[in-house]
TrEMBL record:
InterPro entries: Bact_response_regulator, CheY-like_superfamily, Sig_transdc_resp-reg_receiver
Ranges that cross the membrane: none
Keyword Phosphoprotein (UniProt): yes
Domain Response regulatory residue range list: 160-279
GO biological process: phosphorelay signal transduction system
Descriptive protein name: Response regulator
Top-level taxon of the source organism: Bacteria
Pfam families recorded: Response_reg
The keyword Phosphoprotein is assigned to this record: yes
4-aspartylphosphate modifications at: 210
SMART domains for this protein: REC (SM00448)
Lineage of the organism: Bacteria, Bacillati, Chloroflexota, Ktedonobacteria, Ktedonobacterales
Coiled coil region boundaries: none
Keywords of the record: Phosphoprotein
Amino acid sequence: MMVQWRPLRVIIVGPQNTFSRVLATNIQYWGYEVVMLAAPRAIFDDGTRAMQGDVVLYDLDEVFPTFSRERDFPEMWPERGTANSSEEAEGQETHAPFIIAISSRSVSRVTLERIGAIALLQKSFFKMSWLQRYLKVLQRLTSPEGEALPQQYKQDENIRVLVVDDNEDIASTIQQCLIYESGYEVAVAHDGLDALELYLDWHPQCIVTDLLMPWMNGYQVMRCLALGTARGAPAFVVMSALNQLEVPIGSSYLRGKAVAYVNKPFNIDHLLSAIKQVCAG
């Protein structure tokens, strides 16, 4: 039976002020459903309310005073495809929403990981066009058929590698080295959102991503693809001088994934070996 397409349901969590009302107006204008929750604490006390949405826009400014330490932030919803006891009885599936954090201050990677955020939008740099792009990508990732990555490739087809790094010089150097040394087809993105758009349009077999990037880091790109309905998600190579300290141990979105780590600065041979390793797996 064909599943009917439906627009995203977006939950705005935070104070009902001018900012949130402008958000709601624009989101409705773009064709999505909107629900506003005024009390941030309600999202923790009754997580099932948020589970009814596909995307949560989570205003952290009202929550920081509630939790004095990062480790006090509750870990949030179960991963997509898990069910709670009441819904298991009814044979229904629940899923975690895509969480986009919004804040007027800096937010650590630890906090973003605990709340399961796929991105951080800071109010001082906020652009509606960015939010619209995020929602378009998430709509595609939650489409009934999913944005399927081909499971089989022709033997003579070059491996497609997407390089993601906010440093344009580094990204360009990696691109040229991969093409020259291996003959891979290589595309470049300079932030996580660009990477998701390229993934949906180009279907790379491997994503080589920097860990530390503004707005959406390497792990958030991985989380976003894991939460989506896409089948045959790509392999990942994560690049960073910090990656051994930043691996989110126990995160379900990393389980069963082909992931390798390369410390910066790195030798191109090490990167090529990592790509071959994850693509072979």
